[in-house]
């Protein structure tokens, strides 16, 4: 069962129903209420739209298979439009009025950080789909996350630059929550990889032209590569301006653009761009003996069967991982009691998701290491693995 609320209309309505449950005692069990707040509309809709579609699709599949602990799942969703204040309002409603058992969501770092005090105070498990390391560092007892962090993205990019013998880097970063956080992480970890930041520029989420900032970077003596911490439409504009200005150095983007939407927006300018991302984008290109292959191929096949070829993105994968991690934790705990589920999430070990193999601990509420990232390059409008 899926209940959705538009941030514009603020009217809740049931738009889906439990699938395949018999009209018996099982169907009469109280549902497990899964709360979600996602940026389905607005500037971050490329994140929230596949996340919501994934939750709806797999909750229907779980219900069709008999539910969880014999109970149907009910998805109660609110569209935040990526606005932090709206997110706080809706999460408060999820907690106080909807009385959800878990919260899955937070498409962006900014909206996630805005609601953390609420879920911590309510002591309800929260699995975020946002990329910023600040979500789980420092560790917060009730907060977990599925995607690789921005700090990991910096490390993976710098590792690749090391292999190419490139050490002098220009940064052009978005000033939104994710871009700001990743910028800080890249500056912090650069010395670990002998990387020198020789230029450092920013742009606002509403900017439509970054030529001035990129011109300054291009004129920097000794520049060997450019890295763009950011997500949304900004990186596509950066990529186009980068090509227009005739840079002769590589451009790296973050995992915040790991969807076909970025390639569509950037067009031919995206050719040769590198970024760290989930194996999901190259699912069929993985070796047959890769232990992650069955998971990413299975998710990709299922998603695209419903939403069309080429529609899969890593962002929907984050939602799949979050839902399946919650399912595994409830099954391990044998209950939906919040504290027991929280403890089971923290004890997850060897869980294979679209982001990689997850092993949580009291000190790590994400459970991924740098090997979970794959370095990809865009060639002929598609993703290829960088060897």
Automatic annotation (TrEMBL):
The reply on keyword Transport is yes
Q: Which SUPFAM superfamilies match?
A: Periplasmic binding protein-like I
Q: Which domain of life is it from?
A: Bacteria
Family matches, as Gene3D superfamilies:
3.40.50.2300
Please give a single GO biological process term from the UniProt record: amino acid transport
Name all Leucine-binding protein domain ranges: 31-367
Residue ranges of coiled coil: none
- Alphabetic keyword roster: Amino-acid transport, Signal, Transport
Q: Which residues form the signal peptide?
A: 1-27
In the record, the note on similarity to other proteins reads: Belongs to the leucine-binding protein family.
The protein, known as:
ABC transporter substrate-binding protein
Protein source organism: Roseospira marina
